[in-house]
Specification:
42% helix; five-stranded mixed β-sheet; Transcription Regulator spoIIAA
């Protein structure tokens, strides 16, 4: 998988492309988390629209667990993935463990939610 990292004034964004591999998606989340911490940025966007392949249902669970297990402070994270309904399993898993993450199929909606006046 290939990751394209961008620093914005309001958030950090990573666009990922290539074939779905859970460990690669873990690494993308970890990179996003690290970049947010280093820049003291409380908001991160992970764009998975260009990732191909069908993630297993349990991949979403493991992803939510991984996001929640990252050290504090955790950024508010928006995830963009075309299979929004299936990916919500990661969102629920992360939320149940104290992380703030929401999944969207539309990048514009994800960015609007991310940039709302929310203080994690």
């Amino acid at each position: 998988m290939k990751s394209d990292l961008k620093h914005h004034e309001t958030h950090v964004a990573i666009a990922v492309s290539g074939r779905w591999e859970l460990m690669d998606v873990f690494r993308a989340f970890e990179l996003l988390h690290r970049e947010c911490r280093e820049r003291k940025c409380a908001k991160g966007l992970l764009d998975l629209r260009e990732v191909t392949g069908q993630p297993a249902q349990m991949d979403w669970f493991y992803l939510g667990e991984r996001v929640a297990s990252m050290p504090d402070p955790k950024p508010k994270m928006a995830v963009v993935h075309p299979a929004e309904f299936e990916a919500r399993f990661a969102e629920t898993t992360a939320a149940n463990r104290g992380a703030v993450m929401h999944v969207f199929s539309d990048a514009g909606e994800a960015l609007r939610w991310l940039l709302e006046g929310f203080a994690p």
